[in-house]
Write a structure and sequence with these properties.
The protein has about 270 residues and is of the alpha/beta class. The chain is built from eleven helices and ten strands. It has a six-stranded mixed beta sheet, with helices on both faces. Bound molecules: adenosine-5'-triphosphate and magnesium ion (MG).
Length: about 270
């Protein structure tokens, strides 16, 4: 297991009885594509910020790539192994050109100077941004900024990449580009953990961790979680459109062979009715 957490409890204010996380267990296998799904304020970001020690563990145990996140001595190593991409790429740039920005992260990790240009180039290639090296980050489009921010993370060659609603500010094309990169990384053997409240983005996950009010409500495959309207309703979320249609058709007396998760599966099932 690459992420193994037990009884994680967290409060932003030590005096309050108001917990942002209650007794959360989390386990993610190496190479898995895990999606954390939940409505606003359900504790998704709070939980994932524990994985690279952006928030300090207050209660429970958590290891990431066998590193105890409470071990201050291992924080740099942990953050190199576990990279994080956030929702708003504007807050993630420090330099006046794309290549310098990516190089800055590598310099911080004391990567030998001679190796830096090669690593910068291959990171930009991975996100399809070759040719943008000398551009000023704030002259890029939202989708391009997000890909450069991701290149900055990938240049460090992390084993785990966390996307905290990294597609939320993008248009459908920009979203699709970032989703494609997530899938490419997953196929290349990386562990990808993505937070979203777009249920459609959770359909192709290996595992969904469903959160509500600081707790893990359920954990399972997309079929187990997304086709369960009661469970999704409890989490304050809607099931994907094809699932809604499956139940609407059932009410109307039309029964499909299986509950589809995507529009392609829905079309297949409808064709089977003929
Ligand atoms: N810096 C903070 N200080 C105090 N409370 C916070 C802070 N950040 C989050 N919270 C509270 O912790 C709870 C969980 O928030 P969190 O940001 O983890 O939710 P989320 O699931 O990521 O939501 P969203 O989908 O809106 O990003 C919320 O009640 C929120 O108000
Ligand atoms: Mg959040």
């Amino acid at each position: 297991m690459i992420v193994d957490g037990r009884n994680i409890q967290f409060s932003y204010s030590f005096n309050a009885h108001c917990f942002a996380l209650h007794d959360v267990d989390i386990s993610i296998n190496k190479g898995e594509f895990a999606v954390i799904l939940g409505c606003n304020g359900s504790g998704k970001s709070t939980l994932l910020k524990h994985l690279n020690a952006l928030l300090q563990l207050q209660h429970g145990q958590l290891t990431v790539a066998q590193i105890d996140v409470s071990n201050q001595k291992e924080i740099w190593l942990l953050r190199r192994i576990c990279g994080m991409v956030f929702q708003n790429p504007d807050n993630q740039f420090v330099s006046s050109s794309v290549d310098e920005d990516i190089a800055f992260g590598l310099e911080n990790y004391e990567v030998p100077r001679d190796d830096i240009p090669k690593k910068v180039n291959s990171a930009l290639e991975l996100v399809d941004m070759t040719g943008y090296e000398k551009r000023t980050p704030n002259t890029l489009s939202g989708g391009q900024k997000q890909r450069v921010a991701l290149a900055g993370v990938l240049a460090l060659e992390p084993d785990i990449i966390i996307f905290d609603e990294a597609t939320a500010m993008l248009d459908p094309d920009g979203r699709q580009e970032v989703l494609n990169i997530m899938h490419k990384l997953h196929t290349a053997g990386k562990t990808v953990i993505a937070i979203t409240h777009y249920v459609e983005e959770a359909v192709s996950a290996d595992k969904i961790i469903l959160m509500h009010q600081g707790r893990v409500l359920s954990c399972g495959s997309p079929e187990e979680i997304l086709t369960n309207p009661e469970l999704m309703h409890e989490a304050g979320l809607m099931v994907p459109m094809p699932v809604r249609l499956y139940y609407d058709l059932m009410q109307a007396g039309i029964r499909l062979g299986r509950c589809p998760l995507t529009s392609e599966e829905l079309a297949e099932e409808i064709c089977q009715l003929r």
